[in-house]
Amino acid sequence: MILEQIHGPEDVKRLRTEELEGLAQEIRRFLIENISHTGGHLASNLGVVELTIALFLVFDLPKDKVIWDVGHQSYTHKILSGRQELFGELRQYGGLSGFPKRKESPYDAFDTGHSSTSISAGLGIAQGRDLLGEQYSVVSVIGDGALTGGMAYEALNNAARSKKNFIIVLNDNNMSISENVGGMSRYLNSIRTGEGYNDLKKSVVGALEKIPGFGPHMIDRIKRTKNGIKQLLIPGMLFENMGITYLGPVDGHDIRQLQKTLQEAKRLDHAVLVHVITKKGKGYEPAEKDPSKFHGVEPFDVETGAFLKEKRYPSYTDVFSRALCRLAEKDEKIVAVTAAMPDGTGLKRFARKFPRRFFDVGIAEAHGVTSAAGMAAAGLKPVVAIYSSFLQRGFDQILHDVCIQELPVVLAVDRAGLVGSDGETHQGIFDYSYLSCIPNMTVMAPKNRWELEDMLAFAVDFGRPVAIRYPRGEAYRGLKDHRAPVRYGKGELLYDEGFDDGAGPSGGEPVDDGTLHIALLAVGSMVSTAEHIRGKLKKRGIRCSLANGRFIKPFDAELVYTLAKRHQVLVTLEENVLQGGFGLAVTAYVHDRFPGVRIFQVALPDAYVEHGNVSRLREDLGIDSASIIDRLEESGALTR
Known about the structure:
Number of strands: 19
Largest sheet: 7 strands, mixed
Shape: elongated
Radius of gyration: 28 Å
Number of helices: 26
Strand content: 15-25%
Structural class: alpha/beta
Mean pLDDT: 90
């Protein structure tokens, strides 16, 4: 086994040519076998095996820096840099991250997790290198899908000014997560299929080499001139026109060709882009046939490609998808927008039913939000479905383009709260905070699948900016009988164990009848947790009310007032960071009016949350029912 001999870059460099191909095959088998047990990003990693080997051959890592855009395709990089033995705990709690992490290894030059960032980060590292007078290479690897993100163009524009070597590797597999869209995709397609250029280039170079004396000189002049053969034969030559030397396209599965081209790129004293053509999912037939399905996978059967965990009940994404289609059948003004995630957000069903009303903007969340604002201004009802973590990238557009004008844009915030194995860059734990601080924004969170349907119906007719925030995974099916109509800014009292309405004063202090009364006020995914807590406390003889906040902004002040008036202890529960969240807003309100009420906030700490199983993370962070009861016990909240 060649792979068993690889413990770092020097071991890769010692291999013979024929061994390199064997190494690539062994790495693919290793990835398929391990990811089939742990889950993870498969198709993207299978596509960059040879490219990664070539990078390790040409560059001196970790002195030289390789920055992986998004970073979910860095598994081969981790294997070749000595982390092969850690793959048994890939993306598991306390185990190997599925993304580059500087604190995990000196070979990881920059933490990544979101798209379109590697050129900016790499250029910054190169500028630091030059100012400090150091000598090393900087390579930014970016996918063709990531080039739909505006940040990549901002970085390309600046990279063109570089007077020192800076290498951009464009990993072109004609995919982002789902199939690429837009002008850049068409442009790259024209280069991929432009075989005539490469054939002619080889013929011209071959002929010139035969001319004694003059041939090599003429070849050198052709390579150096900006307005050479490429300029004549490849449409646009976008990168060359920006001032970035273009090399390629190169077969991304030919290690020697990659090695030769990267060596050539390394010699240039300015920015250079190496265009590499790869196949997403290469070497595993199920992933080659359906790279979107095998982008991020749960454990699966290697022989069949079938996922081992059967989905028994619909997820929140499924519920959203079906509900939106039902609404769109009745209202032709409803349109749907996503950012390269029609599968992940559930909008693929909408796209099939209403293709003219579906818009995939590519990996361009900021543009997606503002284009939706334009649609709303034109009289449509846009629903923008984006993961919580990625919606952060459109914050200014929500504030500036949607909310200032109070345009009726619906934000369907998927994957909100803890998402688990993808870790820090993907946890959706900040959206209550960053959305609630924006004037004119309304924020809601459903307690179960039925409430999501009702909230979506409310939102599309609301006529103002509104966000509906729901978690990843199976939709909660409890509390089915509690389905009150959704009214603006109103929560619901699910179980009332408080004092009689007329038993106490209108404010100031809660009434005391000698019995401990606790109220749980939860929002979104934490309503089910609060229901479990209530059940456990009732068994202990503690009278516990449960309210569903429904609205994070504006919260139901009348409901909070009632709870504070009739209970000695009030507990807020949310799956969001404490700072800027629901609990602190409620606490400020209660303290001003009922200083005698003891109030506790259950929320996530002011920190980034590592990767791991969601249940384990909830325990570790103290937001599962057992931990919350323990905390209340320790604080004395459960005693008179």
